[in-house]
Amino acid sequence: MGQLRSLVATALLLAASLCVQPAQATDQFKTVETSTPQEVVGGMSVKMVRGVANATLGWWELPKQVYQTFHEEGVGMGLTVGPLKGLGMTLVRTLSGVGEVLTFPFPYPGFYAPYFEPEFVWQKERK
Q1: What is the three-class DSSP state of 5?
Q2: pLDDT attached to residue 31
Q3: Of 22, 28, 45, 49, which residue has the fewest beta carbons closer than 10 angstroms?
């Protein structure tokens, strides 16, 4: 029963994060003083959802990095370097998610922008 609740909670979190429009939260030159209350609350909401998603789903980085390293650099690197990259990125994404949850009311960095790209673990990395 506990696993079912956890699965349902993760599915709801994923669905909610896909519904949030992150574009309004990435304007580096926007400030709280020059924004409408709706933009400020929207930025806070996006930052909170992103933080919760990254804190709870950061472990997805482990298989993601193994897969990416395997396809970009070959089998040997995928099996040796991939898990190390995955472990490192799991820590980075999870801790940044915790940081975003703790600081969601504050417009740092750059009007609620993400700490790093991609914003969510399931998004493609830009080259």
Answers
A1: helix
A2: 80
A3: 28
